[in-house]
């Protein structure tokens, strides 16, 4: 049996890494956790976190391009993107703490891993 507190901590670090940085640490921390942990739930949470962060980067590039092309007319779309990004991350953290035995799955994302 795996330690529940350790599972919560490592899963929360995987999903919450985006709060530390939006570049290297946001993907680097879940990758490190994926390779270090032997817990299958933690590995799934780390993998899902990596996929989510890649989706955030991808959609950010698209939204930035649309804002530039429309000369700022679609700037509210960027605000919606930020709200979804932070809201889904906070939802993932809440789910990890409330139900540590089930890996969290983000809705409507492309899974690369």
How is this structure best described in words?
By secondary structure, this protein is mainly α. The protein is built from four helices and no strands. Helix 1 runs parallel beside helix 3, helix 1 runs antiparallel to helix 4 and helix 2 (24-36) packs antiparallel against helix 3 (40-69). It is elongated and about 55 Å long. The two termini are 26 Å apart. 26% of the residues are buried.
Task: Provide a brief overview of the structure.
With 113 residues, the protein is mostly helical.
Radius of gyration: 15 Å
Shape category: elongated
Largest sheet: none
End-to-end Cα distance: 26 Å
In terms of topology, how is this protein built?
Blueprint: H1 4-16, H2 24-36, H3 40-69, H4 75-98
Helix pairs in contact: 1-2, 1-3, 1-4, 2-3, 3-4
């Amino acid at each position: 049996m795996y330690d529940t507190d350790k599972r919560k901590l490592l899963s929360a670090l995987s999903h919450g890494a985006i709060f530390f940085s939006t570049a290297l640490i946001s993907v680097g921390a879940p990758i490190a956790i994926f390779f270090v942990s032997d817990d299958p739930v933690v590995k799934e949470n780390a993998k899902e976190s990596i996929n989510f962060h890649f989706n955030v980067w991808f959609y950010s590039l698209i939204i930035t391009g649309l804002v530039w092309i429309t000369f700022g007319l679609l700037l509210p779309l960027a605000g919606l993107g930020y709200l979804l990004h932070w809201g889904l991350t906070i939802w993932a953290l809440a789910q990890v703490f409330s139900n540590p035995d089930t890996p969290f799955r983000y809705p409507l994302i492309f899974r690369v891993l």
